[in-house]
Amino acid sequence: AANKSLLVLAGDGIGPEVMGQVRRVVDWMDRRRAVSFDLAEDLVGGAALDAHGVPLSDATLERAKTADAVLLGAVGGPKWDDLPFEKKPERGLLALRKEMELYANLRPAICFEALVEASTLKPEVVSGLDIMIVRELTGGTYFGEPRGIFDLPNGERKGINTQVYTTHEIRRVAAVAFELARKRNNRVCSSEKANVMESGVLWREEVTKLHAETYSDVELSHMYADNCGMQLVRAPKQFDVIVTDNLFGDMLSDVAAMLTGSLGMLPSASLGDPDETGQRQALYEPVHGSAPDIAGENKANPVAALLSFAMCLRYSFDLAEDADLIEEAVKAVLAAGVRTGDILAPGTRAVSTEGMGDALIAELDKRAA
Ligand code: NAD
Ligand code: IPM
Ligand code: MN
To answer: What are the structural domain ranges in the chain?
Structure first.
């Protein structure tokens, strides 16, 4: 098989710690399976800022665009929190998403059986949970104009962000959700606030139209985003695929993370449109951030990052078997009681970030033997 080029952008805080474990699994795949990777590393976020004065250099953006896939850790941290807005580490990640046109962010929330007890919710609420949040990633309040902080004549200031969506932006992300639903349980719940926002009215109308035109075989429902947050905690298994905007998707996916036991369990894929050859621009990253409270302690859960690499194998390289192998190995390791601190339960032992990586590699070796 031809070499697949991977660009690793580990970023800040626990980013490099969890990506260290991903590198081990990439190396393992390279050695043990019929797939070869060309792995390169570069800087993003605070790390890039410290080295180059910008959170994402043009050269790094170019490398990201030409790589077959990008694997990202996390960006940000207290060290850079007081910088001017355009310099913040988070701007680097947002620029990557925007410049690579990664408009569809897939955030699957799956509760592994071994972690049912690790959730803060009752076992029957989360047991068997398997939902997919499709978050619009290049529009909405994150990018809408006008925006900024402005001085008012009376000496006050005002901060502005604007929710903007076009029909095209809504339709393309909704299409991704419908296509995914067809391969799952065939249900899409579209979430906005059409009761208070015009952009929400447009969102609902366009999703409804696209559904009637092309996807009437899929079951479609609509839910206000505030209710959706409540329903995710009350009865999450009512959902199959949820499609929502950039900001609501950010919040709803952190809520969904706790259904799986920990934010340290949630992976994601950010995808663009396929080109003539069917290849998509793609970036894979855990949903969690740089976790400054535990950074540098070798305590972070690397599973979200590892499962993000599994999503890379599945969505960018069509290597479903290899993706399954990683996911099954993760399940087995958790079932054996190997846990990082965030998913500890009675009768299980806490291991380090590295320890989780060790257990996973050992499990992969066992399965490939
Ligand atoms: P966070 O996700 O970094 O952390 C929230 C809580 O979850 C913390 O208590 C943290 O210890 C815990 N946690 C997160 N990931 C974990 C893991 N893998 N294992 C164990 N525990 C984990 O969110 P925050 O504290 O609000 O943000 C910290 C910084 O990260 C900020 O600068 C923020 O902008 C940035 N951030 C970046 C991304 C990203 O790069 N995609 C995502 C979210 C936040
Ligand atoms: C996420 C993060 C990012 C977001 C930040 C770091 C820009 O919270 O990926 O969920 O808000 O999209
Ligand atoms: Mn977030």
So the answer is: 1-106+274-369, 130-258
What is the ipTM metric for this complex?
A: 0.98
pTM of the model: 0.97
Domain 1-106+274-369 has CATH 3.40.718.10: yes
> Does any ligand 2 atom lie closer than 6 A to the CB of residue 90?
yes
Q: Name the CATH topology of 130-258.
A: Isopropylmalate Dehydrogenase (3.40.718)
Measured by CA distance, the residue closest to atom 1 of ligand 2 is: 287
Chain segment 302-345, per-residue pLDDT in tens: 999 999 999 999 999 999 999 999 999 999 999 999 999 999 98
User: What is the 3-class SS of the chain, one letter each residue?
Assistant: CCCEEEEEEEECCCHHHHHHHHHHHHHHHHHHCCCCEEEEEECCCHHHHHHHCCCCCHHHHHHHHHCCEEEEEECCCHHHCCCCHHHCHHHHHHHHHHHCCCCEEEEEEECCHHHHHHCCCCHHHHCCCEEEEEEECCCHHHCCCCCEEEECCCCCEEEECCCCCCHHHHHHHHHHHHHHHHCCCCEEEEEECCCCCHHHHHHHHHHHHHHHHHCCCCEEEEEEHHHHHHHHHHCHHHCCEEEECHHHHHHHHHHHHCCCCCHHHCCCEEEEEECCCCCEEEEECCCCCCCCCCCCCCCCCCHHHHHHHHHHHHHCCCCHHHHHHHHHHHHHHHHCCEECHHHCCCCCEECCHHHHHHHHHHHHHHHHC
**Which residues' Cβ are closer than 6 Å to ligand 1?**
14, 18, 74-77, 90, 93, 263-264, 285, 288-294, 300-301, 304, 340, 342
pLDDT tens profile 31-73: 998 889 999 999 999 999 999 999 999 999 999 999 999 999 9
- For residue 219 and ligand 2, the question of a CB distance below 6 A is answered with no
Domains 1-106+274-369 and 130-258 share a fold: yes
